[in-house]
């Protein structure tokens, strides 16, 4: 009788220990999966934002050139409307960065990238346009450098 009781207690303790270890392993696996999913989301959001802002910068440069070459022309109006579409895409991508990024400095840099690109079409001459374009390009580079460590 005593031996059977010890065997039953041993089996119960073994089952309990196995259950606890399996639960701990499952929780670790779920945590790692969540971390990896967030990492992948960040990579996707950061690269989509950079791509959208690069397109917006190109559109802003085009808008400035069309407005300067032929103010009020159909090409100038088409370019202006395209810049609005690109701004909307860049703004949506910025919102996504703000949602997945937990680094305040990187979020501020992303906002500054958008603002630097947004004001490009207001340049008064070619020198100022080129400077604003360069500043926007450098802002993208700074954002990528700041965001990259969070996805490595």
The outline comes out as rod-shaped
Number of helices: 4
The structure class reads mainly alpha
Mean pLDDT: 93
Q: Largest sheet, described in full?
A: none
Total strands = 0
Helical residue percent? Answer: over 70%
In total, the number of domains comes to: 1
Give, in order, the helices and strands: HHHH
Instruction: Please report the distance between the alpha carbons of the first and last residues.
Output: 60 Å
Taking all Cα atoms into account, the compactness measure Rg is 27 Å
Catalogue the unreliable spans.
none
- What is the percentage of strand-forming residues? under 5%
How do the strands and helices of this protein lay out in sequence?
Elements: H1 2-69, H2 74-100, H3 104-118, H4 126-147
Helix pairs in contact: 1-2, 1-3, 1-4, 2-3, 3-4
Q: How would you describe this structure in keywords?
A:
152 residues; mainly alpha; single chain; 4 helices
